[in-house]
């Protein structure tokens, strides 16, 4: 699965874009992808989604969004089976990703590789920098700006 945040939020599975659902559900995923593999507390997520209107009444809505995201991110996962992508970890949730699953992380890795090649092989560095730049499809998290 590939998470694309360098432009409009998109998730690609088996070469196909995944329908992520309503705006706030996509916003939960976007927030979690700002720091993949890190836990975001439910309070932090609720505050980010509802701001000054944040309160305990939004907890149920968050659960609905988490459930919806799990259904689209892991459609083959059986009910009540532990999730492997959108994971519950006290005191909240995280998105588990590999080193190249998020385009922004891949971009950073490619830029590092390009910099390492600049002195020894400028042509190869240029190719790697081109690959990195090709990952950008607009402003990062474009729909949430």
3D structure, described in words:
This protein has 145 residues and is α+β, with helices and mostly antiparallel strands. It folds into two domains: 2-95, Arc Repressor Mutant, subunit A (Orthogonal Bundle), CATH 1.10.10.10; 103-138, no CATH class. It is built from five helices and six strands. The protein has helices spanning 23-33, 42-50, 59-73, 103-117, 122-134; strands spanning 2-4, 10-13, 16-17, 40-41, 86-89, 92-95. The strands form two sheets. The protein has a three-stranded antiparallel β-sheet with strand order 1-2-3, with no helix packed on it. The protein has a three-stranded antiparallel β-sheet with strand order 4-6-5. A hairpin with a 2-residue loop joins β2 (10-13) and β3. α1 (23-33) packs across α3 (59-73). It is elongated, with a radius of gyration of 17 Å. The relative contact order is 0.19.
